[in-house]
Amino acid sequence: MNFIIEVYQEPGQTLSDDSIDSLARDIREIAGDCFHELPDYQAIVGTRSALSDKLISLARDENGTPQGFCSMVFLDTFS
After folding, report:
1. Of 13, 26, 27, 34, which sits 20 to 30 A from 48 (CA to CA)?
2. Percent of all residues in the chain with a pLDDT value above 90, rounded to a whole number
């Protein structure tokens, strides 16, 4: 199976409200297959604020159906 990978850098800072809602829906759909109850945690929360400091990779199958995601948090570093 081939996958289409979408990468979103700090999507909470750049995407429209509709795009945020769509991305959050895809993330929660995937997470729902893994958890009995969705945790109130990081990208699964799906708010603009929760997605503002994340790097999200979303994998879709050839039909465009979400199949998996990975989320990473950007941390502030001090010099």
Report:
1. 34
2. 80
